[in-house]
Amino acid sequence: MKNSIKRIQSESMLSTLLSARILRKANTYRYITLAAMALTFAACSQDEDFDPQTDSDAVHINATIGILPQTRLAYGDGDVYGEEATTFTEGDQIRVQNTKRTTKNIATYKLDADEKTWTIADGALVWNGSSTNQFQAWYPANEKASYGSFKLPTDQSSDVLLAAADWMTASTDEMAKPTDGTINLAFRHLLTMVTIKISMWGTEYPATEQSISDVKIHTITTSIGKDNEGNAVNNDKSSTGITPLYKQVSGTISYTAIVCPGKYAGDDEVMTLTVNDQDNLTVFALGNKELTDYGLQPGKHYTFHLKVGKNKLTLIHTTTDNLPGRWKNDSEVDLN
To answer: In sequence order, which ranges of 191-303 are alpha helices (DSSP H)?
Structure first.
């Protein structure tokens, strides 16, 4: 009987100790959770308290594509590339970060209707008044992009979707806050644009049987990073088909996509398509030195002519007239 009472008392004490330990852990978790919530709330409060119109430390920006400063012209409006300002257009958004700060250090800027003024659409970005600042910026301002990496979208079938594949970045050196609180950002294209024109049909296909569908332009990868010099590199070699932008200008059909720069292997696919819903044809890189020996260069636009024959596609690099689009559309024109 005494042993039973002692056992019950021991079990009761053990249960009390366990309960106390569980309670302490619960309180610890609760304190950690409350602390995390408090930090989150403080960060949100800082952004909510931020007013770029009244905050004297708010960062203002100017942003163009290419060398600053330049006169504003749209792509293709000038005769010489160096005379053109390759600019953003109304509604474009870019992400800007001050790497020397830990709070109020990142914001999304949107270009207003006047195509001159950038205003903060999300986040908060301010200057360090008593120490240095350094900025990084990137386009597009979405979940696929950052300053150091980009996930290339595989649907580029509209002007909007094509523009969203145009990964660009800009940065500044360390700097003190200027009198007007403004930074100038000169973005550069990191990827490559490819246009393939259907220029000829073989005699095997009469005019009534010249139908093309399921077109893909292939990139050597969709996972893109940067090397030590800031140039785009493929994070993994995995050829992927992109649904391109279709255009028909003066009866000529063309397909355009933005791809990762670099060299293609001879057996890499460049383009796949279906003719008349039955003939599945593929263009390989083999035999095209532009693709295999030199490689596609960042910030350039290559235009190729394609001849469609029975069970054969012939790809030839050529110079073409300008085509409508976000980028200047000369073959092999340097855009940066």
So the answer is: 289
Distances in Å between the alpha carbon of 255 and those of 36, 114, 210, 213, 284? 50, 31, 16, 11, 16
Q: Are 130 and 180 found together in one domain?
A: yes
Which residue type is seen at 129? Answer: G
User: Which residue in 328, 324, 335, 193 sits closest to 256, CA to CA?
Assistant: 193
283/315 same-domain check:
yes
Q: Which of 49, 72, 87 is the last residue of a domain?
A: 49
Contact 97, 106 (CB under 8 A): yes
What pairs with residue 134 in β-bridges?
Answer: none
Nearest Cα to 252, choosing from 312, 194, 320?
320
Q: What is the pLDDT of residues 258-297, one digit of tens each?
A: 999 999 999 999 999 998 888 888 989 888 888 898 888 8
Residue of higher predicted confidence among 84 and 137: 137
| In a shared domain, residues 40 and 73 | no
For residues 262 and 242, give the distance between their C-alpha atoms in angstroms, rounded to a whole number: 16
